[in-house]
From TrEMBL:
The keyword Iron-sulfur does not apply. It is found in: Cell envelope. One of its GO terms (biological process) is cytochrome complex assembly. Pfam families: Redoxin. It comes from the Bacteria. SUPFAM superfamilies: Thioredoxin-like (SSF52833). Residues 212-350 form the Thioredoxin domain. Its main location: other. PROSITE patterns: THIOREDOXIN_1, THIOREDOXIN_2. Residues 1-23 form the signal peptide. This is Thiol-disulfide oxidoreductase ResA.
Amino acid sequence: MYRNWLLLLVVALGLALSSPAVFTSQQTLANQDAAGDALPEGKDAADVVQQIQQQLFMKGLEGIDTFNKQKAAFYRKYADDPARWQLKLVEVQVAMVSGKANEATALLKEIEAAKDAPEMVKGNASAFHLQGQARDVMAGKIKLDDFGAQIESHLKKYPRVPANRQLAYILVEASAADPAQAEQRLTALANNSYLAIADLAEKKLKVVKIRKELASKPLELSFTAVDGREVDFAKLRGKVVLIDFWATWCGPCMAEVPNVVQIYKKLHDKGFEIVGVSLDSDKEKLIQVAKENEMSWPHQFDGKGWENELAQKYGVQSIPEMWLVNKKGIMRVFNRSQNLGEEVEKLLAE
């Protein structure tokens, strides 16, 4: 399931990165599907590539065998057409989700070195190449400074590639990964000449500073929950508290709920509490969903969605986001969902 979702994601990205697409009608796609592995018809090679991408997007992993046959037919028919490099880029995406990292890297290098590859395709290949290195950066296999220099070199060479903002995001997140150096690195990036990097770094720097302050003293927060209960963190001293930023419309948030409820039932009597912060705008739906899913803890709600006052105050930029507060009221763990039960038990034992 995860690999199928990932394939849809990368192929969708490929569609966005390629030349502006005129999406084929559902009937046309159905006709092409009925034709089996035949090469789709198109006004030119670039149009055929677009249709191959769309079919792969619609079918997901089940469409890889068809894609492999279609690409072979395409290369026979359009052996010298520059559009073949866009199809090579789709090959890269398929290799990525198939766990063939070396094959993907080799294809990217081939595209970047090609004399007749369109400049935008080369730029996309360069962007994918750098995105593929992000995991090695986080693992310490590639120095962050070297990675940053490569990204800046890419931005200078390919300033108009749509994926550049994603590269900027990766660089900023990597720069914030080490708490000891995050503030210094982000301050430098906030003054970067590339606006995408500077903008994201400035926003991330704000979040880092907020979290630094939260981790330095007991949390002072009180409000009236959506069900009328009064919540005051000063009165929760001596307990471990999970602050869960979520929303009923957030699929990943709802996917976490059964596990969170299970942990709550197991550890509540030992001193574990949960406080929800809902980014919903529909009060009645929030109350209904919380009841149906046994989310019996208090929920802060102001009906402002992403503009929720607490989310804005604490720099929450994505959900689900889970924070753990220790018995002294100090924020100890940010954005914890994996191994949540273990983290709670550790704090309860302190």
